[in-house]
TrEMBL record:
Region of interest: Disordered: 141-166
Organism of provenance: Trichoderma arundinaceum
UniProt keyword Zinc, yes or no: no
Localization of this protein: Mitochondrion inner membrane
Protein name as catalogued: Cytochrome c oxidase polypeptide V
Lineage: Eukaryota, Fungi, Dikarya, Ascomycota, Pezizomycotina
């Protein structure tokens, strides 16, 4: 018996909640509230925006046939319109981005050239002659005899990676 009362109590509270939400959403929003929403939306206070969206959301929970054309347009515009993160960039944004990229590339090129000018010369181990001598030493020592420089039929360059000395 207690169980049936609890279940009935839950059903009553649920049905009461459903009826209350239906009562809220059955009344159409006024046309002055929705008129020219595209131009007014950005200037509206956040609380008013939230209230309007919640009222439209409650209306959309019911049958969409009951929505007025103005409500459908307002709901679509609020959900997908060019405002907030989807707003259109102000004029000149692309030019500013392009100039920023050009300035960044120029600065990095200047830094690279400055480092190259101020750098010490390449070490003596980075000449082709030194690396060929290293190859000969590796062959004499029998380094990597299965697949490397000491293996029969090896056709690779070994450790040579630099151009000849000028």
């Amino acid at each position: 018996m207690l169980r049936s009362m609890v279940l009935r109590g839950n059903a009553l509270t649920h049905s009461t909640r459903v009826a209350a939400s239906r009562a809220m959403s059955t009344q159409a929003l006024s046309n002055p509230t929705l008129s020219n929403i595209e131009k007014r939306w950005e200037g509206m206070p956040l609380q008013e925006q939230a209230d309007l969206w919640m009222a439209l959301r409650d209306r959309m929970k019911g049958s969409w046939k009951d929505l007025t054309l103005q409500e459908k347009k307002a709901a679509y515009w609020i959900a997908f319109g060019p405002h907030g993160p989807r707003s259109i960039d102000p004029p000149g944004t692309n030019a500013r981005v392009a100039w920023g990229v050009v300035i960044g590339l120029a600065a990095s090129l200047a830094l690279f050239a400055g480092i190259r000018v101020a750098a010490k010369p390449a070490p003596y181990t980075m000449t082709k002659e030194y690396q060929e001598a290293s190859n000969e030493l590796l062959k004499q020592q029998g380094a990597d005899p299965l697949t490397g420089i000491s293996s029969p039929g090896y056709k690779g360059k070994g450790v040579i990676q630099s151009p000849p000395k000028q």
